[in-house]
Amino acid sequence: MKIAMLGDVALFGRNTIKDSKVKDRLREVAEYLTEFDTVVANLEAPFTTSNSTVGGKSAYIKSNLDDVEILKYLNVSVVNLANNHIFDYGFEGYKDTVEHLEKVGIEHFGSEGNVVIQKKDDVQVCFSGVCSFTSNPKGVVGQPDGIIDAYDLDYVLKRLREFRERGCFNILSVHSGLEHVNYPSLEDIDAARMLAGEGPFIYYGHHPHVIQGVEIHNGSLLAYSLGNFIFDDVYSSKSKAPLVSLSENNRTGMILSVEIDSSGHIESNQVLIYNGKEGLEILNRSAHSAEYKAMSEFDLKLKADRDV
């Protein structure tokens, strides 16, 4: 089974179907993603008409209902909802999101204990998702009215074991880490490597909005952060200036391409993308060797860390 994993996706700003040029800007990547059996993304911004925010965040993000069409255009068939923005507009925003995903046939996981199991030939893959409390989320299990699956290691271990016993290869989507830092926290490294000791799986990380390292540990593929896939400057109601502006660092993201066989063997490829003014571009390895060298240095830094 051939799977593409995408980083943070938030359809607002210029990344909306109301912009007549949005599909042109995404065309190159959209065509590339047709090569995969499954394309999975971390969906950060809820699809909702609600204006009732939850909590005391500095900024909230959401998408128009019809922006779900962009996911279909990108061949996205599965999304993770376990993150720190999907509940920005409370249960109403979450409910709108689920309704519109299901309306267009996009599966979702990471909330209410939901997983997605996909099969091709003799390969069966289970997608599950969790959100760390360190990402400042709302609506996570353990909080009032929480329905977003929490990054609790006992819970994660139980779920990974359950689906492994059912013959599934696990892909665990983890929303955690330090924002705008190209190195994972020691806590996230320790936890990922501990989980890898339980049996092979893929750690599919996001939240930092920049690329972090990828390593193989005990036969597991641990990708700590794929960075942004589609994002834009974030504004608040308090200022005309952006609260968060895209930098060169978080304009560069990664598509993690994997092939999994029936024995659980993983072949992977890290493909860099760049969110430029003209569109979302796939960076060619020969033409953009400096960018790929920088990415490989993030991987090498993980080897300098202590073993656990």
Describe the protein's topology.
Elements lengths: L1 E8 L12 H12 L4 E6 L24 H6 L4 E3 L9 H14 L3 E3 L6 E5 L2 E9 L21 H13 L3 E7 L10 H11 L5 E5 L7 E4 L2 E4 L4 E3 L17 H4 E9 L5 E10 L4 E3 L6 H15 L5
Descriptive overview:
The chain is α/β, with parallel strands linked by helices and 308 residues long. It contains seven helices and 14 strands. The strands form two sheets. Strands 1, 2, 3, 4, 11, 12, 13 and 14 form an eight-stranded mixed beta sheet that branches. The protein is globular. The two termini are 31 Å apart. The mean pLDDT is 94.
Radius of gyration equals: 18 Å
- Average predicted confidence as pLDDT: 94
Oligomer class? single chain
Rough outline: globular
Written as H for each helix and E for each strand, in order along the chain, the element string is EHEHEHEEEHEHEEEEHEEEH
Number of strands: 14
**Beta-strand content estimate:** 25-35%
Share of helical residues: 10-25%
The DSSP helix count reads 7
Largest sheet: 8 strands, mixed
Low-confidence stretches: none
Q: Could you tell me how far the N terminus lies from the C terminus, measured between alpha carbons in angstroms?
A: 31 Å
Features:
single chain; 308 residues; alpha/beta; six-stranded mixed sheet; 7 helices; 26% strand; globular
Brief summary:
This protein has helices at 22-33, 68-73, 90-103, 153-165, 186-196, 248-251, 289-303; strands at 2-9, 38-43, 78-80, 107-109, 116-120, 123-131, 169-175, 202-206, 214-217, 220-223, 228-230, 252-260, 266-275, 280-282.
